């Protein structure tokens, strides 16, 4: 009997070796798959010759054979299933088997003759050698570059994901997270994992510094290695800004946290080492350091852009000005109608909003900001002789006031207070929810 059992920490793992009969369901976004297999070999306590498997799997096709590791589950609706935790394609081991595999319909343009040449040149391990290094195909006589590229792409699509799963599982990565890595990098996944694992922090959701650091250690990026120190600094600047809502981080607390993050019982990172890397990263354009402030490049650009646009708005000429007496008369009539009296600071805010091209209104919860917004809208409309009934406007003559807020809840609250339509900032700008691409309007 073929030795397919694997041992983990001395404990035999449950497995099923099976041939894919057909795929019942597959989600190409997260690779969740339901398929029916013919059981060829197993150490599980099952009698079924055909069995449904479920789980996150690489690309599978009928007639392919896999080793599945997992557990038996009795679904209340669908009955006995095998929940796959890990899988491995069962590749042919003989030269004849490899030739037959490469000459199959899976690899267009590679016939039996070419497959035989490949196997004669690269041996029985041809498949794994090609996946690990596409350049070995340059040694194949008569194999054109275009066909070699297609063979590699097809092989990598089928085998490369499993190589990624194997490498990452050795470092505690689950199947879901490992497949996310593959989806982001595709054919470059193994190269990036082995050359610059810290890049995963910025490109793959769910991977933080600690996980990337495990991969880094496996290729020698340990202790005070420059790449490790830089990755830790970049991670902290980004995380602290996002978590605490800052545009930048002060250098002193950043250095303290970087030392704590990067030090271990065996290695003590010095403050001077972090300071040196921050200076070099600024010089190389990886971060922006201004005096004691440390920015990510994107947030620095955003802050400069915001400041520039505020200056532009402040320099905009107000088209129509109103005497203070007319403003106070209009506001007084409004207070009388509503049965309220604005505080002096609220009156000043309403007047500033109407008289200036830009006004910032701040205040904690319950300080009357929404009441001020309502006053701004009403006084502005009355001074300019505008109707606040949205039905009075058309597509060619749109409603003249836009009410927006960062969140849907805040937009709803604003609409309830004013009786006017409001929207979130991103929907008003025409930004799609997930991709953040601007739609044409």
From TrEMBL:
Keywords: ATP-binding, Nucleotide-binding
Positions of the ATP-dependent RecD2 DNA helicase-like helix-hairpin-helix domain: 157-248
Keyword ATP-binding among UniProt keywords: yes
Domain ATP-dependent RecD2 DNA helicase OB-fold stretches: 15-92
The organism's place on the tree of life at top rank: Bacteria
Keyword Nucleotide-binding in record: yes
Family matches, as Gene3D superfamilies: 1.10.10.2220, P-loop containing nucleotide triphosphate hydrolases
Pfam family, one: OB_YrrC
Protein name, entry field: AAA family ATPase
Organism from which the protein derives: Alkalicoccobacillus plakortidis
């Amino acid at each position: 009997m073929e030795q397919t059992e694997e041992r983990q920490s001395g404990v035999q793992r449950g497995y099923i070796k099976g041939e894919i009969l057909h795929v019942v369901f597959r989600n190409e976004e997260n690779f969740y798959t339901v398929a029916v297999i013919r059981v060829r070999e197993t150490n599980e306590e099952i009698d079924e010759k055909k069995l449904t498997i479920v789980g996150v799997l690489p690309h599978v096709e009928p007639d392919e054979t896999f080793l599945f590791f997992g557990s038996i589950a009795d679904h209340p609706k669908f009955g006995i299933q095998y929940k796959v935790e890990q899988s491995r394609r069962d590749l042919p081991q003989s030269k004849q088997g490899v030739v037959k595999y490469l000459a199959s319909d899976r690899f267009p343009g590679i016939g039996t003759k070419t497959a035989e040449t490949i196997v004669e040149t690269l041996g029985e391990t041809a498949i794994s050698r090609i996946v690990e290094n596409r350049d070995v195909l340059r040694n194949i006589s008569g194999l054109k570059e275009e066909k070699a590229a297609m063979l590699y792409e097809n092989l990598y699509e089928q085998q490369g994901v499993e190589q990624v799963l194997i490498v990452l599982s050795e470092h505690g990565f689950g199947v879901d997270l490992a497949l996310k890595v593959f989806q982001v990098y595709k054919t470059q996944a193994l190269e990036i994992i082995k050359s610059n694992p810290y890049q995963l922090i910025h490109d793959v959701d769910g991977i933080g510094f600690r996980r990337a650091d495990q991969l880094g250690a496996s290729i020698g990026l340990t202790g005070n290695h420059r790449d490790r120190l830089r990755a830790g600094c970049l991670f902290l600047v980004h995380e602290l800004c996002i978590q605490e809502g800052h545009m930048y981080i002060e250098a002193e607390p950043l250095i303290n946290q970087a030392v704590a993050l990067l030090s271990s019982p065996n290695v003590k990172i010095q403050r001077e080492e972090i300071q040196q890397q921050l200076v070099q990263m600024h010089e190389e354009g990886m971060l922006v350091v201004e005096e004691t402030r440390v920015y990510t490049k994107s947030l620095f650009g955003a802050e400069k852009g915001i400041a520039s646009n505020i200056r532009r708005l402040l320099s905009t000429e107000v088209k129509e000005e109103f005497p203070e007496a007319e403003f106070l008369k209009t506001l007084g009539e409004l207070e009388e109608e509503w049965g309220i009296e604005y505080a002096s600071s609220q009156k000043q805010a309403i007047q500033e909003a109407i008289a200036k091209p830009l006004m910032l209104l701040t205040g904690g919860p319950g300080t009357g900001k929404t009441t001020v917004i309502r006053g701004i809208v009403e006084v502005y409309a009355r001074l300019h002789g505008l109707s606040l009934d949205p039905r009075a406007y058309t597509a060619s003559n749109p409603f003249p006031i836009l009410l927006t807020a960062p969140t849907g809840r805040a937009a709803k609250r604003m609409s309830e207070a004013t009786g006017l339509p409001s929207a979130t900032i991103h929907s008003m700008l025409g930004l799609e929810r997930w991709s953040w691409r601007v739609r044409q309007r």
